From TrEMBL:
Keyword Cell cycle included in the entry's annotation: yes
One Pfam family per UniProt: EPSP_synthase
Molecular function in Gene Ontology: UDP-N-acetylglucosamine 1-carboxyvinyltransferase activity
Catalytic residues (positions): 116 (proton donor)
Domain Enolpyruvate transferase residue range list: 6-411
Protein name: UDP-N-acetylglucosamine 1-carboxyvinyltransferase
Annotated keywords: Cell cycle, Cell division, Cell shape, Cell wall biogenesis/degradation, Cytoplasm, Peptidoglycan synthesis, Transferase
Listed pathway(s): Cell wall biogenesis; peptidoglycan biosynthesis
Domain of life: Bacteria
InterPro entries hit by this protein: Enolpyruvate_Tfrase_dom, Enolpyruvate_Tfrase_sf, MurA_subfamily, RNA3'P_cycl/enolpyr_Trfase_a/b, UDP_GlcNAc_COvinyl_MurA
Length: 428
């Protein structure tokens, strides 16, 4: 277990660069096993999830090296093997191996994935898609077994009952090599899905419509990497630093951003009265004062991202009045509330079924011992700790590290007083 020790109250300034998108990376790594050649990614974030996914690759005799921000994966000698359940259960994105293994071997056996506990996130839409493609799916004691008949997978018409990023990506991975045409209706539109499709298309896949609600895939027999794939910037990391800069910054330039991916978030900051200057690939945040309360409704992309409802919360403490957040995607994403209350935040969950969170002006935050229950909850505690007077000790900081690469270096570079204390170096 690791802890972040935050000595709050310092005003932050300077420049910080955003890394590659976690939510792309954790899907691209499983997607790499579909290739018949080595693959190479750059702008890879140095986060715990990457190292856990590399352990899963190793169990299948897939070699990988990670130096700087470059990750090379060689799946040419891949073998079917039991996947390490400890690594699988440490992150939910391991479920992408279901689609990738199914696409590669026509079968997959994967322990039910773990990851952050932020409420029900069933995989029924994934299973529905696999069955439509010609697979049989069974689940016994937390292990999911997926297999096809002698004819293997085939193209299919699939309509997702709910907009699901995970189900959309898993369906792409399973069908990209399946003979025939696959059409995914009610597909998710996130930038990360476009990133996955771009990677696969550059290897010879035929995927059209990524970024819209209808994706068409013509199956191809082989995928071969020819170029390095650069992962898109992480819009959630960017939004987190935007919130931090608006809350306690004296002028922070956030670089390596695609502003179009952050339009709904930036719109809310501007509605509050934050001082923002948006450039082509960066955003400057000036010192923000006299902020207005706002109402946020979390929606599928291009709406306000559920992964940003917690990081924006500490900024809402500075608004002159009551703000309201409604999370329509994960209404039970409230682990941060009790912990922010320990720091003096005036925040409460009004209706967990409806995902309603009420945030009042909280001008007197004070350091305390808190626990990072999951990635984005931990990010909100970190920002609040930087705003608070005194020392904040955040336990289970490894949860935060799963989503934010080079975190301590980036924060100290802005003038923050943050130290990481590692009690156990075991990765999984």
């Amino acid at each position: 277990m690791s802890k972040l020790i935050v000595n709050g109250g310092n005003r932050l300034s300077g420049e910080v660069s955003i890394g590659g998108a976690k939510n792309s990376t954790v899907a691209l790594i499983p997607a790499a096993i579909l290739a018949d050649t080595p693959v190479r990614f750059d702008s890879v974030p140095d986060i715990l999830d990457v190292h856990n996914l590399m352990l899963i690759l190793k169990s299948m005799n897939v070699s990988s090296t990670f130096k700087g921000d470059v990750l090379t994966i060689d799946p040419t000698n891949i073998v079917e093997a039991p996947l390490p359940s400890k690594a699988i259960k440490s992150l939910r994105a391991s479920y992408y191996f279901m689609g990738a293994l199914l696409g590669r071997f026509q079968r997959a056996v994967v322990s039910f994935p773990g990851g952050d506990n932020i409420g029900p996130r069933p995989i029924d839409q994934h299973i529905k898609a696999f069955k439509a493609l010609g697979a049989e799916v069974s689940e016994v004691d937390g292990t999911v077994t997926i297999k096809t008949g002698p004819k293997g997978l085939h193209g299919a018409q699939i309509f997702l009952d709910i907009v699901s990023v995970g189900a959309t990506i898993n369906t792409i991975l399973a069908s990209v090599k399946a003979p025939g045409t696959t059409v995914i209706g009610n597909a998710a539109k996130e930038p990360e899905i476009i990133d996955i499709a771009t990677f696969l298309n550059n290897m010879g896949a035929n995927i059209r419509g990524a970024g819209t609600d209808v994706i068409r895939i013509e199956g191809v027999p082989t995928l071969q990497a020819k170029n390095t794939h650069t992962i898109i910037p992480d819009r959630i990391e960017a939004g987190t630093y935007l919130s931090l800069a608006a809350a306690i910054g004296d002028g922070v330039l956030i670089t390596n951003i695609i502003p179009e991916h952050l339009e709904s978030f930036v719109a809310k900051l501007e509605e509050m009265g934050c001082d923002l200057t948006v450039y082509e690939d960066s955003i400057y945040v000036g010192r923000s004062q006299h902020l207005k309360p706002i109402r946020i409704k979390v929606m599928p992309y291009p709406g306000f991202a559920t992964d940003l409802q917690q990081p924006i919360t500490p900024l809402l403490f500075k608004a002159d009045g009551r703000s309201v957040i409604i999370d329509t995607i994960y209404p039970q994403r409230i682990k941060h509330i009790s912990q922010l209350n320990k720091l003096g935040g005036r925040i409460k969950s009004k209706d967990t079924d409806e995902g309603i969170i009420v945030v009042d002006n909280s001008p007197h935050l004070k350091g305390a011992k808190v626990d990072a229950g999951e990635i984005r909850a931990g990010a909100s505690l970190l920002i609040a700790g930087l705003m608070a007077d005194g020392v904040t000790e955040i336990s289970h900081a490894e949860n935060i590290m799963r989503g934010y690469g080079s975190l301590v270096d980036k924060l100290t570079g802005l003038g923050a007083d943050v130290k990481l204390s590692v009690e156990d170096e075991e990765r999984v």
